[in-house]
Amino acid sequence: MGQNGMIELEDITKVYRMGKVAVPALRGVTLSIARGEMLAIIGASGSGKSTLLNMIGLLDRPTSGKYLFNGLDISKLNDNQLAEMRNRELGFVFQDFNLLPRVNALSNVELPLVYSGGVRQRRERASLALEMVGLAKRAHHKPNEMSGGEQQRVAIARALVNKPKVILADEPTGNLDTKSSNDIMGIFHQLHQDGITVILITHEADIAAQAQRTIRLQDGRIVTP
């Protein structure tokens, strides 16, 4: 395995069982991601992209293979330790925003902080995160009062509020028009320049082309372009 990777996957497989049928989602993925890198993982629907993201994001465990995060063997951690590491190290952004519809942007961004710090501290951190994505003036608007691009910026602010070292984004521009997509990619580029590792899952070649490096998944394997 590489020596400089923040994230090191070696021969990772994932097999899902549906009754008596075994469905392989990943078929031996070896991948090194450097600290501060901006990586795009591209592939068609069903290629294993989201499974790989779940694996990198500590949301799922591999069937076989080895995963080191900052040199730590993930297989040696229990579920509580994995959850703690996810909350401390990782921020997630999804295609469909996953915002709570009945509360405003500020409250949505505060969600990951519910169990940490006092109310004032949480509010300050959430306000700062909204400022970082250019939405300070929309803090008290609910999701249904915002455009898709604004909702995705709220989702990015929520991902940033715990000051993660890695942002994992699953089709973050999939539901957006071209201008909003460009705005969102601009935020990811800024985060990358600030030293955050950004990992994008996408099926859009023009989005993937904006990353430092692109890998292609096909049938659960990394293939050369």
List keywords for this structure.
globular, 225 residues, 32% helix, 7 helices, 4-stranded antiparallel β-sheet, 6-stranded mixed β-sheet, Rossmann fold, alpha/beta
Short description:
This protein is an alpha/beta fold and 225 residues long.
Describe the structure.
The chain has 225 residues and is of the alpha/beta class. The chain has one domain (37-61, 89-223): P-loop containing nucleotide triphosphate hydrolases (Rossmann fold, 3-Layer(aba) Sandwich), CATH 3.40.50. Helix content is 32%, strand content 29%. The protein contains seven helices and ten strands. It has helices at residues 49-56, 79-89, 105-110, 119-132, 148-160, 178-193, 205-208, and strands at residues 5-18, 21-34, 38-42, 64-69, 72-73, 90-94, 166-170, 197-202, 213-218, 221-223. It has a six-stranded mixed β-sheet, with helices on both faces. The protein has a four-stranded antiparallel β-sheet with strand order 2-1-4-5, covered by helices on one side. Helix 4 crosses helix 5 and helix 5 (148-160) packs parallel to helix 6 (178-193). The protein is globular. The model has no long low-confidence stretch (mean pLDDT 92).
